[in-house]
Amino acid sequence: MKIIIINGPNLNLLGKREPEIYGTQNFDSYFETLQTKYSTLELVYFQSNVEGEIINKLQEVGFDYNGIILNAGAYTHTSIAIGDCVKSIASPVIEVHISNTFSRETFRHQSYISPNAKGVIIGFGLKSYELALQSFL
Predict the structure, then answer these.
(1) Does residue 97 have an active-site annotation?
(2) Which one of the listed residues 30, 65, 75, 97 is annotated catalytic?
(3) Which of 1, 134, 124, 18 is nearest to 71 (CA)?
(4) What is the pTM of this model?
(5) What gap in Å lies between CA 35 and CA 125, rounded to an integer?
């Protein structure tokens, strides 16, 4: 089973950026933990701060992978293009957010991805990614 985690803008700063919201662990070390725990799966990780690169990656893997875990960061709330891309591909997408976006600024309550996602997991810290991963199993 092939599953990819795609992270959007500023998620490369996890562990440094607003630790009171996002925690102190960086994503690379967390991803290594997931790879060890789920060693029978082919787990791939991609991160970009660039909207078009995220769309290109979704299109690249969106017909071959068994699942996509997508945290589009702030693009969640602004990118009709990423939402359209998720709608256009065949692989199921789980939208993930580390923080509870509904307890934050009002603009974070809107998602252009959710209507086209298989499901949404919000607010469980980095554990949100593992919950999404388990949904594919």
Answers:
(1) yes
(2) 97
(3) 124
(4) 0.93
(5) 18
Check: CB of residue 77 under 8 Å from CB of residue 113.
no
Where do the domains of the chain lie? Answer: 2-136
Would you call 30 a catalytic residue per the annotation? Answer: no
User: pLDDT tens digits for 76-91?
Assistant: 999 999 999 999 999 9
Q: Say which CATH architecture domain 2-136 belongs to.
A: 3-Layer(aba) Sandwich (3.40)
pLDDT in tens, 3-50: 999 999 989 887 777 777 766 778 999 999 999 999 999 999 999 999
Q: In what order do the strands lie in the sheet with 2-7?
A: 42-47, 2-7, 67-71, 93-97, 119-122
Residue 130: alpha-carbon gap to chain centroid:
11
